[in-house]
Amino acid sequence: MGKTIAEKIFESHLVDRPTADTFVLRLDAVFCHEITTPIAINDLIARGKDRVFDPARIKAVIDHVTPAKDGKTATQGKILREWARRHGIQDFFDIGANGVCHALFPEKGFARPGYTIIMGDSHTCTHGAFGAFAAGVGTTDLEVGILKGVCAFRSPATIKITVNGAMPAGVYAKDVILSIIGRIGVNGATDKVIEFHGPAVGAMSMDERMTLCNMAVEAGATCGICPPDMTTVDYLWPFIKAEFVSPQAALAAYGRFLPDADAGYERIITHDISDLAPQVTFGFKPDQVKPVAEMAGTPLDQVYIGSCTNGRLEDLRVAAQVLRGRRIHPKVRGIVSPATPLIYSQALEEGIIATFMQAGFCVTNPTCGACLGMSNGVLAEGEVCAATTNRNFNGRMGKGAMVHLMSPATAAASALAGSIANSELYKE
Amino acid sequence: MKAFNGPVLFLDRSDINTDEIIPARYLTEISKEALRPHLLEDLSLEEFDPRADIAGKRVIVTRSNFGCGSSREHAPWALEVNGITVVIARSFARIFRQNMFNCGMLAIELPEESIEKLFSRFAGRPAEIAMDFQNSRLTVRSGEEEAVVPFVISDFDRKLVEAGGWVDFADTHYA
Ligand code: SF4
Q1: What's the start-to-end Cα distance of chain B, in Å?
Q2: CA-to-CA distance for A60 and A49, rounded, in angstroms?
């Protein structure tokens, strides 16, 4: 039987099979941020093993709470910063150059087809958009990754999801992934890799594929992977042009990670989006999903546009298109957080930041901030937020608050209405 | 190897996520001990009183998809500093389960009937678990009531528990 993408990556990176059900893989990159890495660093120091396997393969960023909000977050940043300096980690992104990890690292070309990547962050699955096997891990796995450059995984059993149909106007990758999670459930892909196929995925930009793969973990998946194609190569070309004579040659080389025609999938799902309407979550689980129309009128206190799911340039463009020349509802607090400095400056150049400000939005620096309820827009008890993020768990953005996940277009339209609303870009 | 015996805390809900186990606002802590008072602080479960219900417990028995959400190893650490070293569930989220074994703790998956049996016979009463790790079975007791439940963990997870966790295992196996 043929092999899936993940099986091919596993095969090419295999270091050891300590037991039949375990694959220890060599890592191409270990990504680090200031929330989950400092404890790994401290543990390594305590063990007398303050070393890194390869400073060039370690990438680190302070992104979750930046600028630091108090002594504790300042200490987390300090531990990461000093460690990066001590070990000569060149790709370390501190204030002024930092942004949300899963937006920043792809933008720097750190995610490539066929790569194995770990990070102490569940949304590491985002980097699968580039045809990589990228998995979120805990601090102990991260610690071993930093020290040895290896990580252990169970078998790469894969679910194939073929997304068919053309994306209706006003419907986005966020709506697609919400509808998929709503269909298969928060447990629907636990311990599995999801391969995203089909014309709708082929037509997506890298920004959209990252949104799609970002939320694979919300269905329990280890990683969401899009097969590398010309869109992938075009995005990566500035970073890989020294390695290949032409984009075509790069595509041909990456072809070795494409799945075989007779690859063995654990499950095959066909998902048609021709009639998909914009989606929104209604409860405390990301699989509690409904069409926006069914939730229309739900009053909001805050609208948050940003995060590793939907804080990229295309997201801000769409939201600005909805907001242009208008003011958000006086009862709503609007917050936009461009995910990286590059996205921020491009948005400035395109007049997108001005549009947000004229509409009454607060523009924050690039950071995770309110997404995980740590800074820059934490909610009070009983408040309701429309967010372009990926988690609506109870207490996620503030204790006793409710989060409704949606696309940037829906979030912008909801900010104008003061309650959940479809954007004009969507016509029923 | 850690100790795996003691009183049971029953959490009768599926999809308990890591934000409920330890909310993100405590992720700024850089000591495990600081997490202790905040375990399950945001759990939405009727009649659950975190401080009183957690006190003295060593084992959690729960439903499916326990530990979904964030990758934070703060979740198993928050359990550990409260003396809880075993979680028994219908199923786990991948990262949480791996984190448990990486810390040398136990995340045991049982079939639906076994979980159902544990809840119907023991939930709501003071119950204790005695772990026979070598022979892969555990005994639940409450007064006269007793049930012996066999379980399966993978060979690799067993090695991690015996080694005291993944760092120690990796250290002896990989250069
Ligand atoms: S933006 Fe939110 S989901 Fe993404 S890495 Fe940051 S905290 Fe996690």
Answers
A1: 24
A2: 19
Mutation for A interface: B28, B33, B72, most A CBs within 10 A: B28
Which CATH code is given to the segment(s) A279-417? 3.30.499.10
Choose which CATH entry (3.40.190.10, 3.40.50.720, 3.30.70.1050, 3.30.499.10) describes domain A5-154.
3.30.499.10
* Nearest alpha-carbon partner for A150 in A31, A56, A60, A15: A15
| HSE toward the beta carbon, residue A215, CA cutoff 13 A | 31
Q: Flag whether residue B143 sits within 8 Å of chain A, measured between CB atoms.
A: no
Architecture of domain B6-173: Alpha-Beta Barrel (3.20)
Cβ contact, residue pair A393, B20, below 8 Å: yes
Domain A158-272 has what CATH class?
alpha beta
Q: Does A47 touch chain B (CB under 8 A)?
A: yes
pLDDT, residue A428, reads: 78
Q: Residues of A numbered 365-394 whose beta carbons fall under 8 angstroms of chain B's beta carbons: which are they?
A: 372-374, 391, 393-394
What's the predicted TM-score (pTM) here? 0.95
Distances (CA, A) of A198 to A164, A224, A261: 6, 14, 14
Which residues, judged by CB distance below 6 Å to any ligand atom, belong to the binding site of ligand 1?
Answer: A 64, 100-102, 121, 123, 307-308, 368, 371-372, 389-390
The per-residue pLDDT for range A358-402, each reduced to its tens digit, is 999 999 999 999 999 999 999 999 999 999 999 999 989 999 999
Question: What's the pLDDT band for B175 if we cut at 50, 70, 90?
Answer: confident
Reported ipTM: 0.91
Which atom of ligand 1 is nearest to B24's Cα? 7
Domain regions of chain A by residue span: 5-154, 158-272, 279-417
